[in-house]
Design goal:
alpha+beta, Rossmann fold, OB fold (Dihydrolipoamide Acetyltransferase, E2P), six-stranded mixed β-sheet, five-stranded antiparallel β-sheet, binds adenosine-5'-diphosphate, ATP-binding, ABC_transporter-like_ATP-bd
C-alpha cells in the first residue's frame, strides 16, 4: 500500500500570451483521500490535473508529493497514473497485455507481472475478459481496463479526468461506485475531475469547487451542500433563489426590497444576498405573515412541480407537490423558513 500526500502551492498557469487560467491555486490532499475538482467547463480543472501529471508545465508554483518537490520532474518519473475520458487503450493489445503494459515498461519480471496483472484483473472483475481486445468490450468494460492499467503499477497518485463522461447514466452510477470501492480498497490518493455535482458528492472525501482558475471552496461534500461559501458555489449546487440584501433590520432579520426577512443566524453587515433552495420554500394557506405571488411558469420535475413565481421579493423558484398542481396565473402562498435562509457575503 502506498500512502501519498499531495500539496499544490500557489499554482499559476498562462497558456502562451493569453490571460492567466489558474491564479494562485493551493490545495492539500491528505493520504488516501479522493478529492474532486468540480467546476463548469473552462474553470481550469483539466489544466490543474495535467500540471499535477507533468503533461503541462505551470507558469509558477510548486507541486509536492509527500515532501518531494516534483514541480520539474518529468511525467514518467512522477509515479502517477492518469485515466482519460477516452480511455486510450492500446487497440492491438489484449486486456491482459494492456494492463501489463506499465509493469513491462518498469522491467518487472514476467512472473511478477503475471501475478500482479492477474490479481488486478480479479479486483476489477475482468478475469473472464483477459484475452479480449478493446474493440470487443463495452464502454464500461473498457473503463475498467483503463482503471486496472492505471492501478496495477501502484501509483503514488491516481488522476482521473472525467472518466465517466462517455458512459450512459446508469453505468456512470455503478462505475463511480466501483471507482470509490477500488480507491478505498487500495488507499490510492486520487484526484477526480468532473463537472457533475452529484457524481463528485457521491464519492469524494473533499471537493474543490473551481471558478475561473480559482478555488471558491474546498470542503467535504456535506459542508458544501449545506454551507456554500459563495454565490457561485451555491448556484452550482442547486440554490436558485438569490435575494439581494438592502440592509439589516434587527439581530435576526434583513431587509430585502421592502420586505423584512427573518434568518436564524445573527445578522452580519457583510451579507450581500440571502439564498434558499426551491424545495426549502414552504407552501402554506393564505394568512398573516404569509407571502403571495403569481405563478408565471410551471415545469414538471417528476418528484415535484417547479414554479417561477412573481413575488414581492422578485422572481422566485419554488417547488410544490405533484398531488396539488397550481395553474399558471394562479396565486401561490408561501413562507421562507428562517432556518433555511443562508446569508452569503460574495
Ligand atoms: P476545464 O477542464 O475546467 O473545462 P480547462 O483547464 O480545460 O478547463 O481550461 C481552462 C481555460 O484554459 C479555458 O479558458 C481554456 O480555454 C483554456 N485552455 C485550455 N487549454 C488550452 C490551450 N492548450 N491553449 C490555450 N488555452 C487553453
Amino acid at each position: 500500500m502506498i500512502l501519498a500526500r499531495l500539496t499544490l502551492e500557489n499554482l499559476a498557469m498562462t497558456y502562451g500570451h493569453g490571460d492567466p487560467v489558474l491564479h494562485d491555486l493551493s490545495l492539500a490532499v491528505a493520504d488516501g483521500q479522493l478529492v474532486s475538482l468540480l467546476g463548469p467547463s473552462g474553470s481550469g480543472k483539466t489544466t490543474t490535473l495535467r500540471i499535477i501529471a507533468g503533461l503541462l508545465q505551470q507558469t509558477s508554483g510548486t507541486i509536492k508529493v509527500d515532501d518531494d518537490d516534483i514541480s520539474r520532474v518529468p511525467v514518467y518519473k512522477r509515479g502517477l497514473s492518469m485515466v482519460f475520458q477516452s480511455y486510450a487503450l492500446f487497440p492491438h493489445l489484449t486486456v491482459f497485455a494492456n494492463v501489463a503494459y506499465g509493469l513491462k515498461r518498469q522491467r518487472i519480471s514476467k512472473a511478477e507481472t503475471t501475478q500482479r496483472v492477474t490479481a488486478m484483473l480479479a479486483t476489477t472483475g475482468l478475469n473472464d475478459l483477459a484475452e479480449r481486445y478493446p474493440q470487443e468490450l463495452s464502454g464500461g468494460q473498457q473503463q475498467r481496463v483503463a482503471l486496472a492499467r492505471a492501478l496495477v503499477v501502484d501509483p503514488r497518485l491516481l488522476l482521473l479526468d472525467e472518466p465517466l463522461s462517455n458512459l450512459d447514466a446508469k453505468l456512470r452510477v455503478s462505475m463511480r461506485e466501483e471507482i470509490r470501492r477500488l480507491q478505498l480498497q487500495l488507499h490510492t490518493t486520487t484526484i477526480f475531475v468532473t463537472h457533475d455535482q452529484e457524481e463528485c458528492f457521491a464519492i469524494s472525501d473533499k471537493v474543490a469547487v473551481l471558478n475561473q482558475g480559482k478555488i471558491e471552496q474546498y470542503a467535504a461534500p456535506e459542508e458544501i451542500y449545506h454551507h456554500p461559501a459563495t454565490e457561485f458555489v451555491a448556484r452550482f449546487i442547486g440554490f436558485e433563489n438569490f435575494l439581494p440584501v438592502n440592509g439589516t433590520v434587527a439581530d435576526h432579520a434583513y431587509r430585502v426590497g421592502d420586505q423584512t426577512v427573518r434568518v436564524n443566524v445573527a445578522t452580519d453587515g457583510a451579507a450581500k444576498v440571502l439564498t434558499i433552495r426551491p424545495n426549502q420554500i414552504r407552501l402554506v394557506p393564505e394568512g398573516p405573515e404569509v407571502l403571495s405571488g403569481q405563478v408565471t411558469i410551471r415545469t414538471y420535475l417528476g418528484s415535484a412541480y417547479r414554479y417561477t413565481v412573481d413575488s414581492p421579493l422578485g422572481a422566485l423558484q419554488i417547488d410544490g407537490p405533484t398531488e396539488a398542481p397550481v395553474a399558471v396565473g394562479a396565486p401561490l402562498h408561501f413562507t421562507l423558513p428562517a432556518e433555511h435562509l443562508l446569508p452569503l457575503e460574495a
